[in-house]
Amino acid sequence: xxxxxxxxxxxxxxxxxxxxxxxxxxxxxxxxxxxxxxxxxxxxxxxxxxxxxxxxxxxxxxxxxxxxxxxxxxxxxxxxxxxxxxxxxxxxxxxxxxxxxxxxxxxxxxxxxxxxxxxxxxxxxxxxxxxxxxxxxxxxxxxxxxxxxxxxxxxxxxxxxxxxxxxxxxxxxxxxxxxxxxxxxxxxxxxxxxxxxxxxxxxxxxxxxxxxxxxxxxxxxxxxxxxxxxxxxxxxxxxxxxxxxxxxxxxxxxxxxxxxxxxxxxxxxxxxxxxxxxxxxxxxxxxxxxxxxxxxxxxxxxxxxxxxxxxxxxxxxxxxxxxxxxxxxxxxxxxxxxxxxxxxxxxxxxxxxxxxxxxxxxxxxxxxxxxxxxxxxxxxxxxxxxxxxxxxxxxxxxxxxxxxxxxxxxxxxxxxxxxxxxxxxxxxxxxxxxxxxxxxxxxxxxxxxxxxxxxxxxxxxxxxxxxxxxxxxxxxxxxxxxxxxxxxxxxxxxxxxxxxxxxxxxxxxxxxxxxxxxxxxxxxxxxxxxxxxxxxxxxxxxxxxxxxxxxxxxxxxxxxxxxxxxxxxxxxxxxxxxxxxxxxxxxxxxxxxxxxxxxxxxxxxxxxxxxxxxxxxxxxxxxxxxxxxxxxxxxxxxxxxxxxxxxxxxxxxxxxxxxxxxxxxxxxxxxxxxxxxxxxxxxxxxxxxxxx
Length: 692
Fold this sequence. Notes:
Layout lengths: L4 E4 L2 E4 L4 E4 L2 E4 L2 H17 L4 E2 H8 L9 H13 L9 E4 L3 E4 L3 E2 L3 H6 L2 H22 L11 E3 L7 E6 L5 E9 L2 E8 L5 E3 L11 E2 L5 E13 L4 E12 H4 L7 E6 L5 E6 L3 E7 L4 E7 L4 E7 L4 E8 L4 E7 L5 E6 L5 E6 L14 E3 L5 E6 L2 E6 L4 E3 L7 E6 L6 E16 L31 E6 L6 E5 L6 E6 L2 E4 L9 E6 L5 E6 L2 E6 L4 E4 L7 E5 L4 E6 L6 E6 L4 E4 L7 E5 L2 E5 L5 E4 L9 E2 L8 E4 L2 E6 L4 E5 L5 E7 L6 E6 L2 E17 L1
Helix pairs in contact: 1-3
């Protein structure tokens, strides 16, 4: 008889439900992990405290399956965490280096007595009946063709104005989406699937986040930029975000005004969802924590629903029929976790998310409930995945390889998806130019344009060009081979420096001070290569997200998600040691002598001296971190109000204006001598498709 339950100390292990239970608290654990524990328990019952070898466990649990090298060690680590065992001083699972593992505590088997007293003929009858029933079920349910898969793609829109944030209406008759309307704004639209008729839902364009529906399907809920009260001191109107709604039923007859429900001056309310009784849930980020909040529109009050003390909470979804929340977070060990909450925000279970080998460990996951609420769908690096509620991920192959988002039809497995890509080129311009005209033209992303002659015209993304310090070469990131690679212009030739077999994005790179090597991060690993192209990985204690600056002394500034994004560290290339500098939320970083400059998510630039309290960092208000370069004794930064390129001293004081830039070509990347490198946005091609 197959064991489905056993006990270790006060823990109940239920294999039929893949849970470990302690004091009525259920923790979902991957089935493979529990199979390892079951094997250890069975061997203890059969052979006492005999060690179970690595090979025996691998053969028994993963027979015929190719796994990553540390799969077994990872399972043991999960078991220790779930069972409260300490690897340094184990009391439950003993490790025998290079041999295997064994259990240190006795296992209790509640079904043992029943198993031993069953008569042989009864066992035989049960076996025969079970076999007959199983054979009948297999026969009745044996598929005549393979299980349903996503194989067909049907275009829904094909316009010059790119679309985003698509979802089905609750009755499945309409597709709702954002359509770009120029000047960095969009309209909310609906399209009737049977007739193809489209309806503009919003009466004025704005900057809107991803919409969702109220439980009754009558209103759309989303984040929208809004004007806050005027600041009397500065005589300026501040821009903030609002939790907003729009009457969907009325908008199908006539475009409706956006109705702000709650003004959120402290930042954007992320992924707002409507709850019963005129309440709304949303994520709110703060410098050191992210919380799930609830706004009650009847009482006009905000209250906390859930906060993770030790984890970085970065995304959530809500399934209205079951009134359950799915929360995505990253723990201190930088593992992604899925937490399921009931309608009262009480934890139902918490599971680690097992990333597949080709997934970027630094990428944040944004999962959305399937129609039945049993799984979550998510997009990572253009591909579609299904996430089980126990944290198990599965790749769902589709005809599209460049997915942006996806939503499931309420009554079928059909998806509405946004698919497309951006076209970005690299430009080399004269740093000092006579044209100082202020740019007043708004960017129009609905048309393909070539603001300046491209250094190398392609139809893919070419990003972050950087001169070598001696000015002889230009390195850049490009996905012209389908994946991110580091490329170098040498002698009028473009050469791929990094390996195309890595599927992960390259988030940042730097030249060595002597111009002979490059350093970059990819898939959490740090790589180093000379211009000959021979690359090797460096040993780092933590997974690196991006590389920011390479100082003369062999010190490199890197960013690590620890677990909050943008933790600033210093990495020593000689000793392979990492030193945390005490700042999170960093987007970019530079080093001048011993001083470090960095910009945050709002592109605000600050300066501090490592070793000092980061809270005392000096703000340089004139600088814009998203378009900024530091070279020698000067800072080059773009003024976002008029798109002029200015030169500043190292204290952020304006020295002179160099030239004007264009609305889709202002993101400067490097300066050498009298030459300027920047990225220019050529166009974006995003459309809605149905996938079934």
